[in-house]
């Protein structure tokens, strides 16, 4: 069953597995996952491979070798592989439609889930939000019964992309989403950035929840502040960090 | 006073004690217990024994040997045993009436207790809930004064079973309950699963609390989503995990 | 300045200092104190001495030897002693008026402070509360300007005792109080019990806060449940624990 | 590019760097920062130097040597220095206008940010607040679009100072502020005190949030209690601590 091009550099693959494994462990260290509720993947579009966490394996015993390798359609490429995360079809769909991303993270982190369960976008209430997300973090529409029963995980990707396309949202400017009733997906150009975005999303979801308790008027950050904070960290004129 | 059938394999008993001891420690590591507020038991129906935590012993000094062995009515089977958890009669009652369960966990975990104190079922607001609990997590009715004064711990079991029978709830599909004003009981086919269900119950109780703060309409997860998430993890067509 | 009866057994004194020191450290381990916001004392009524934490000394560098020894009026008994906790006069007042207690704990633990700042008693919403506190945890009246400016710390004790006497509350049945706008004091027959009561008070304060968010009717635990849970742990017919 | 007066004692500079580095690490240990969201600086007015955290460097790998040295206008004084925190102009502005302060701390600590995002002052609800802050912790006005686009970080300092001057607030009596939509700045006569004030600000912000949930009347601490608690810790008649 070895379908993978044998010429793929084993070093590149092992490095991907190592990064994906480390990123999964990082989610637990950041208190974003309970039990096995989280998964990270990375894509290498040139080589045509995705590496993703196996399904239901505890973080404590998980090894880099156990990371699962698939092609860009999510088909297994290694013999004796463990089953991939059941959310793999969502990752595959996102890689197909969001050209600029190379890693996807899914968690059930508490505060992001609370917003997802409330079916609401997380409004941009402050600069902590604006530093990473250039606008509200969208929440998807409810999947139809047919979508759920036919291809649930793929169509979870579909409703994410649908929302970004309908509202003309740039997935690199808003590198995360809430799937209604379920939880957050984040992404990035690197696996570390995708994990960082998952950390930020839960943190701003926490802050936004109690900002609303304190301020029933729900005032947003002015747009010029949103611009200022997003662009002092991103794009050609960024001046935050050592880059 | 050694009433236990001497032919019981000591190895089996020691293994049960070890598992129950470890499960009690796991509750503390998962931040579900303060002081000594929690207890775990396991039943072996064939051998006719229950192993349960002793009453009021601190986790830091508790040993596997101290776990208390009783028959299926809760009568002590070992000489010089410590007193069992005062909640033992609840465990006994649950084992008698819920045929498929082999372990019971009781805690005063914060968020589950908040719901128990509010006297409310935890509604299924999301897939994190549906992955483990196939519907609302029920809260029992208040015990009557007579029940409390006559056989409080046994009748705590009775009102749990009453709620499950009245509402036709399958205890394996909803492996947990809130006893009103008191706190959660969870159970499972193994002691590890019962502990895991206690972890999940507190987590979804936390998420549900603030979902209501964010969404005053209290929209539930659609039933077809509840089905999808429960059955992708449970039953013949489950496809989550490596099993 | 050595005023202490030289015949006091140094062993007894060192043991008291050790216990008080350990109890102060236990507050920090239980996440009840930030910075130096907490103090524990123990009294030996026969020997006529109180041992209390020094004022403003960080937990990390605090030693058993630094614990401050006073007589029952709060006068220093050792040469070169550090200054005692500024709350000493409150401790002294409580020891004088609550005959059955041998230790006092004061913290600024978060959830207890929230209730103190709201000026409200913590209602008995559940059995976790009833296991330790046989009724609402009272909040004192506001001190008058004159009381604050004249003998603030002593009169903090005075308003505590006033509330217990006015409402006929037994300080051993309700081993804690909230001083309005300030925070909790707890006590007990031993220093370990007083610390434990501080842990329980903050935990039930946390649970009660969000019980109210979930249940706007604010239903209390029935009195017969309060009785049941309090008396299964306390008094002649208690059956909880190994005692 | 070495512009610094060569006669500056290297020992003094290294000590400043060490203190600023340790203070930055202390923020992380106190759970006040996520990722790299925080910065600390110290000024030596006689020597005319400021030492501040570099921009965007992870705490785990940050070294004392990497701390950035500038003059009192924020101009770099060492060759091959890393880029300073992007908030440096705010620190510079505060040092210029608040004569008594020698250190500034900025974080995105959760509870302080919630209040900043709500655009509200933190009211003095209790003595934990009054022990450190002699009155409400002010929140700045929104910056205008022109201010944001012209000199955002400097004018963040400007709106802070404007609020203190307009309301006649002594920055040593209220050693912290919320910048609207953004987060807290605190300061002090030493870097340790500025960090401590950041810890206290987040703690009292947390307590104040849920005090309001419990007490819809939002009663404040009486002024004579505010006086008592502030002045038992500060000024000529302070009697708290060993000082």
TrEMBL record, chains A, B, C, D:
Needed co-factor(s): Zn(2+)
Catalytic activity line of the entry: L-ribulose 5-phosphate = D-xylulose 5-phosphate
The enzyme's E.C. designation: 5.1.3.4
Entry keyword set: Arabinose catabolism, Carbohydrate metabolism, Isomerase, Metal-binding, Zinc
Claim: Zinc is one of the keywords in the record: yes
Pathway listed: Carbohydrate degradation; L-arabinose degradation via L-ribulose; D-xylulose 5-phosphate from L-arabinose (bacterial route): step 3/3
Gene3D superfamilies: Class II aldolase/adducin N-terminal domain
Enzyme class: isomerase
An example Gene Ontology biological process: arabinose catabolic process
Residue ranges of every copy of the Class II aldolase/adducin N-terminal domain listed in the record: 18-209
Family named by the database record: Belongs to the aldolase class II family. AraD/FucA subfamily.
PANTHER family, per database record: FUCULOSE PHOSPHATE ALDOLASE, L-RIBULOSE-5-PHOSPHATE 4-EPIMERASE SGBE
NCBIfam families given in the database record: PRK08193.1 (NF006047)
Function: Involved in the degradation of L-arabinose. Catalyzes the interconversion of L-ribulose 5-phosphate (LRu5P) and D-xylulose 5-phosphate (D-Xu5P) via a retroaldol/aldol mechanism (carbon-carbon bond cleavage analogous to a class II aldolase reaction).
Name listed for the protein in its UniProt record: L-ribulose-5-phosphate 4-epimerase
The organism of origin for this protein: Pseudolactococcus hodotermopsidis
């Amino acid at each position: 069953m070895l379908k993978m091009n044998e010429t793929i550099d084993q070093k590149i693959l092992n490095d991907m597995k190592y990064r994906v494994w480390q990123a999964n462990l990082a989610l637990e260290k950041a208190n974003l996952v309970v039990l096995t509720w989280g998964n990270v993947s990375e894509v290498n579009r040139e080589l045509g491979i995705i590496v993703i966490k196996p399904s239901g394996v505890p973080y404590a015993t998980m090894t880099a070798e156990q990371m699962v390798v698939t092609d860009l359609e999510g088909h297994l490429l290694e013999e004796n592989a463990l089953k991939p995360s059941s959310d793999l079809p969502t990752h595959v769909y996102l890689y197909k439609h969001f050209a600029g991303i190379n890693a996807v993270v899914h968690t059930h982190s508490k505060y992001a889930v609370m917003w997802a369960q409330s079916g609401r976008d997380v409004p941009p209430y402050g600069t902590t939000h604006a530093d990473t997300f250039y606008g509200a973090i969208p929440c998807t529409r409810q999947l139809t019964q047919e979508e759920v029963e036919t291809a649930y995980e793929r169509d979870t990707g579909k409703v994410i992309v649908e929302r970004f396309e309908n509202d003309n949202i740039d997935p690199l400017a808003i590198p995360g989403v809430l799937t209604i009733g379920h939880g957050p997906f984040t992404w990035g150009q690197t696996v570390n950035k995708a994990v960082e975005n998952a950390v930020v999303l839960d943190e701003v979801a926490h802050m936004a929840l109690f900002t609303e308790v304190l301020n029933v008027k729900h005032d947003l950050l002015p747009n010029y502040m949103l611009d200022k904070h997003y662009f002092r960290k991103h794009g050609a004129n960024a001046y935050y960090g050592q880059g």
